[in-house]
Fold:
Amino acid sequence: MYFDNIPEIKYEGPKSQNPFAFKFYDAEKVVLGKKMKEHLPFAMAWWHNLCAAGTDMFGRDTMDKSFGAEKGTMEHAKAKVDAGFEFMQKLGIEYFCFHDVDLVPEADDIKETNKRLDEITDHILVKMKETGIKCLWGTANMFSNPRFMSGAGSTNSVDVYCFAAAQIKKALDLTVKLGGKGYVFWGGREGYETLLNTDVKFEQDNIARLMRMAVDYGRSIGFTGDFYIEPKPKEPMKHQYDFDAATAIGFLRQHGLDKDFKMNIEANHATLAGHTFQHELRISAINGMLGSIDANQGDLLLGWDTDEFPFDIYDTTMCMYEVLKSGGLTGGFNFDAKNRRPSNTYEDMFHGFILGMDSFALGLINAAKIIEDGRIDNFVKEKYSSFNSELGQKILSGNTSLAELSSYAENLGSTNEPQSGRQEHLESILNAVLFG
Ligand code: XUL
Ligand code: CO
Structure:
């Protein structure tokens, strides 16, 4: 037991002052015909919760994530597994996500790393059977090792490209072994620092080739889940090719990968791209590619990826509005979030997840209210109702021409005005629904 002094976290309602209770997340509560826990398949990110200990550019670890073992050993890797499963069980979290090198200390030789990965995933499988906790998605970390300094799929080195291929192959093996629902590509080093030394087309085509090989290999070993691209515009690179959802979707279509891939949308990456979280979700959803979510939030005053636990209820509300309207996720809500550096105790780890899970539960409750209220949806429907006319229908079915539309316009004179967009009114409806 690693978290002896922390009880199982239960729902106690908004009035509860118990720091170790949910105020809004009530797993069994039914919202719009489904239990909260079914709407919100939450996942723990191995890297932030079990590995990251507060080191930043200016200072060392502030948190103790040794879990009683010497760091850099297989004992430590096992202690992380045991602590992680105890943590997830106490919170009622049913999924986890991992990078290959989150699980074990990376050896110099890839064969030795892979042996360690086999050993640790045997142990994880035992824990999964014991607890019923599942794997949401796996991925390969192709950004930390110095060999990836100029990219993985986008590298200029054939050798490095093969190292990337080897890591993806192994990470896919592990994802299948653990029954993962998805496999993520986050292109942390897939981009450039300067165009002076970069052949963008060469690099992008090579990334697509690597993804194609990953799909072929994954399908050949029985992986039936979704591949995901997780868009992010920058950091660590100055420019990253998977800039945002629209760019990534275009890339997938260009290379014939769109049937196998969906988006994993991260809130903080959306705002770094100059979009709202809701925008990225909407663009993915209307293209049939809203797969999974990295649930966190950024700080709009800072220009980097702060990976905070979600707290902004407007954001979680509009997120859940998009998710509900798109029919739910095939993936889940992975808390790609970490405690602030001075929040350095085990208790803080729980507080982070309680905050995040409550924020999404509130978002779900609010989004259901917006949909049940109907005024916003009706307004949008009504806004385009002029296209219900005979001529509007001809436009929508592609059965007219510029000449026909032009002669119609000539007969209109100056009488026709577009209707008000009523933004302020809609914003006030939103507030009334949320706080009324
Ligand atoms: C980095 C990030 C990653 C991905 C997985 O910004 O979000 O942790 O989620 O590689
Ligand atoms: Co992420």
